[in-house]
Amino acid sequence: MDSLSLILETFAPIDGRRILDIGCGSGVLAKALSAQGARVTGIDPGEAAIRDAGRCAPTARFERASAEALPFSDGSFDGAVMLNALHHVPEPGAALAEAARVVGPNHLVVVVEPLAEGSFFAALRPIEDETAIRAAAQAAIAAAVASGALACLRDVTFERHETFADLGAFLGRVTAVDPAREDAIAADPEGIRAAFEAAAARVEGGYSLTQPLRAHVLVAAR
Questions:
Q1: Is residue 80 part of a domain?
Q2: Cα gap 3→112, rounded to integer Å
Q3: Which end of the chain lies in a sparser environment, N or C, as judged by fewer CB atoms within 10 Å?
Q4: What's the pLDDT tens digit per position in 117-131?
């Protein structure tokens, strides 16, 4: 299983569906969903991300906005996706409430989040320790379900495997997500190298890192 397969399966048939990509980043998911016929709108708080997303997925629509205050009316979409994004939101509970609002009753919200475990997490941790924010994202999902605002239809954990030619390729990957990480890398290059080499498995073509992901398929309450 992978994230895209899960999302396509959840919204099948996805052709023509209005999908909101919350925290769209550079537009990779929006491009993939648009290629399957979805009518995708992406939001991200970053100006550079919105610019890059527009180039990556020219048939989708993008707006700069925060997940906690979506600029859309109630029930504007057939579904919403938050892929590796909820833990970056300062108020994850508010973001889930907004996602439920804009899809409306009986529509689905897919949330895929990295867990604070796995070799990828171990290699990233000296650069940015996301233990607390990843836990907060899981707690927000649990709270939304407990409150009745969202119901959980599916809860599944699977692994993402990535291969990097060398440390430089890994650092390029994690700084593309957040350029501010470059300061931490510059502050402790040897410690970061040691953590990467301790966590990564040697494979043909370089180094392999594994990140467990937890996916929730949620439905907005009536």
A1: yes
A2: 7
A3: C
A4: 999 999 999 999 999
Q: Is residue 25 part of a domain?
A: yes
Residue at 16: amino acid letter: G
Give CB contacts under 8 A, 24+ apart, made by 88-94.
88/23, 88/133, 89/23, 89/137, 92/136, 92/137, 92/140, 92/141, 93/140, 93/143, 93/144, 94/67, 94/68
Element containing residue 207 per DSSP (H, E):
strand 206-220
Amino acid at 206: G
Phi, psi of 16 (to 5 degrees): 85, -10
Do 89 and 23 touch, CB atoms closer than 8 A? yes
* Per-residue pLDDT tens over the stretch 154-211: 999 999 999 999 999 999 999 988 889 999 999 999 999 999 999 999 999 899 999 9
The structure tokens 């180094």 sit at 207
In a domain, 173, yes or no: no
Whole-structure pTM value: 0.95
Pairing of strands 150-164, 61-64: unpaired
Total tally of structural domains belonging to the chain: 1
